[in-house]
Every structure is written in structure tokens, then in C-alpha cells.
Amino acid sequence: MKEQNYLDNLVGVFGHPASENCGVVIQDAAFRDLGLTNWRFLTIDVVREDLADAIKGLKAMKMRGINCTIPHKIEVMKYIDKIAPSARLIGAVNTIINDNGVLTGENTDGQGFMIALSDAGVSPEGKHIVILGAGGAARAISVELALAGARHLTIVNIPQDMALGEGLVKILKENTQVSVDYVPWEGKYKIPAGTDILVNATSVGLYPHVDDKPNIDYDSIEKTTYVQDVVFNPAVTAFIREAGNRGLKCQSGQAMLVNQAALNITMWTGLKPDKEVMRAALEQALS
Ligand code: NDP
Fold first, then answer.
1. What's the rounded Cα separation, in Å, for the pair 78 and 244?
2. What lines the ligand 1 site, CB under 6 Å?
3. Is position 73 annotated as part of the catalytic site?
4. What integer best gives the mean pLDDT of the chain?
5. How far is the CA of 35 from the centre of ligand 1 (A)?
């Protein structure tokens, strides 16, 4: 009789709420395509107070890794042995790799964004980039762009969140070479002349508010500006539709999501998944 190994390799996501997290769809598609029949991605609802126990459980069950989403991305850092330099700067971890009980924390949100940009043929080096928002996604993206040699970042954020925007500017100034300014977002924001890349890093346009788009003066976007959204549901947000209708080169947040999921898989399995398979699975799940 052939020797069998019925042991599962476990990865997944800790979050609360977790039920709407579509990571499993993308990751399972990649595992199937790679022939990794004994890899399982578990969507696990973990409330804030139970995070420490969940991490103990992860180690006890020898899970290979975990993604962390709201509300755990910052809190989880205190349970991790090694934190990647960019994740430390961002101040958040969304991916943990478990090497025989030693936990390494990474932030693949920003890295996924950078690959999406590169896949679109856009380099951030020497560029002026306007980032709308100063939350978690904006932070991850700004740090990666600064480390990749962007010339100037403009962080635009609603005044209610001024501390968030100013905090991000301080981190960038103290730890990277990029020049950066903060603009309180009041009324219709005019995109400055010479902007090479415009990023919507707010949650505006996210399902179910699919007709909403960031309050900017769309006529002020120059024809040469590349436009990137972080919102991935729907695939074509009102923001991206507006950019597309104006003939601007643009890309949906789905590219960033698929790339960060692909990075997770490589970190956990050492294999490179087919991103097209993952993208198709995501599109089907959200259609
Ligand atoms: P956060 O809540 O941390 O940040 C969102 C930011 O957008 C906040 O600063 C928020 O301000 C601001 N904002 C919300 N509404 C408005 C508005 N009407 N006008 C201006 N600013 C506004 O969320 P995240 O950064 O974690 O996520 C942002 C988006 O990015 C979400 O849609 C998320 O799904 C997406 N995302 C996509 C990823 C991908 O791989 N494609 C990865 C990670 C996130 P306030 O706090 O005051 O509401």
C-alpha cells in the first residue's frame, strides 16, 4: 500500500468581522492550480480580546501562517518575533509566517500595490504622487513608494483625521528620503499640476456605496497622470470609471489585492501562483 500523508498545511485570516473576507476564494484557487491539495485557507473570526489566544492556537496547530485584518494589524505586532523593516515603518502587519514557532511579520498591502504598479508599466521613481487618504492602505502604500524612490508625496486627508495625515508625514520625513506635504481635504480637491500618479487610498466607492467617488476636481487631472484605486469591490469603481472615460491610464484595486495574496502564497509555500487564476476567481466571487 502506498504511504499516505493526510496532514493539512494550514493558513488563513484572523479578523473581526471575518465573514466578508474574500481571501479564501483567491488563495484556494491558487492552491488548486498549484496542485497543493493538502493546503487549507481558513477564515477565522477572532475578536480583539482573543488575539493572544489565537496566536497561541496558531503555534499549537503549527499553522504555516496567517493574514491579519481589521482590527488586528497593529495589535498583532507585539506577538511577533521578527518584523520586516517596511512593516515596522508602516506600523502594521497583515501577513505572518510561522517558521517552527518563530513568527515573522510582513505587510504585503504596500508590496502588492507596488507590483500592481509595475505590472501596469509605471515606475514611482522620481515621480510626484498624490495619495488620497491616510488610513492603513495609504500608510502602507506611502512607505513603499517612498522607499522605492518617489520624488514627492502629497497626502490628502479629511481634516477630521488630521492627526492621521500629519503622523504619516512625520514617519515619512523621519525615515525616508522623500519630500512630502500634507493637505487637509476641504471641498473639491484640485490635483496639482505635474502629478504623475494619483492614488485613491480611501474607502470611498466601496460596495455598497458604488456610486460614490472621491471629492476631487476631475477636470484638474492631467492627461499623463496614471490613476490607481485601492478599492477592489466593485472591480470598476466610480473613480476608475471616471478616469477611464477621460482616457486616463488606470487600474482597479483588484490588481493590488491579487498581488498581495500572491505574495502571501509565496511567503508560505515558496511557490509562485498563477495570478490570472487568482484574479478570475476573485472576479467570479464578486460578480
Ligand atoms: P482605513 O479606515 O484605515 O482608511 C480609510 C481612509 O479613507 C480613512 O482615512 C478615512 O477617513 C478616509 N475616508 C473615508 N471616507 C472618506 C471620504 N468620504 N472622503 C475622504 N476620505 C475618506 O481603511 P484602509 O486604509 O484599511 O482601507 C481603505 C480602502 O482600501 C478600503 O476600501 C479597503 O477595502 C481597501 N484596501 C484594499 C486593499 C487591496 O489589496 N486592494 C488592501 C487594503 C485595503 P475616516 O477614518 O474619517 O473615515
1. 43
2. 109, 112, 133-138, 157-158, 160-161, 164, 185, 202-204, 206, 230-232, 253, 256-257, 260
3. yes
4. 95
5. 35
Crossing angle of helices 108-119/254-269, nearest 10°?
Answer: 120
Q: How far is the CA of 201 from the centre of ligand 1 (A)?
A: 6
| Residue identifier of the C-alpha nearest atom 34 of ligand 1 | 231
Torsion of CA 38, 41, 42, 48, to 10 degrees: 140
Residues of the chain with pLDDT > 70, as a percent, come to 100
Does residue 1 have a pLDDT over 80?
no
The residue annotated as part of the active site, out of 2, 59, 73, 275, is 73
Closest CA to 116 of 173, 197, 171: 197
For the CA of 134, the closest atom of ligand 1 is 9
Cα distance between residue 190 and residue 192, in whole Å = 6
Residues in the chain: 287
Q: What is the pLDDT of residue 164?
A: 84
**Ligand 1 atom, smallest distance to 212 CA:** 18
What is the structure's pLDDT at 159? 80
Angstrom distance (rounded) from CA 98 to CA 95: 10
d(CA 66, CA 94) in angstroms, rounded, equals 8
What confidence category does residue 2 fall into, taking pLDDT thresholds of 50, 70 and 90?
Answer: confident
Picking from 216, 71, 207, the residue whose alpha carbon sits closest to that of residue 135 is: 71
The Å distance, Cα 249 to ligand 1 centre, comes to 22
Can you list the domains of the chain with their CATH numbers? 9-107+257-286 (3.40.50.10860), 110-255 (3.40.50.720)
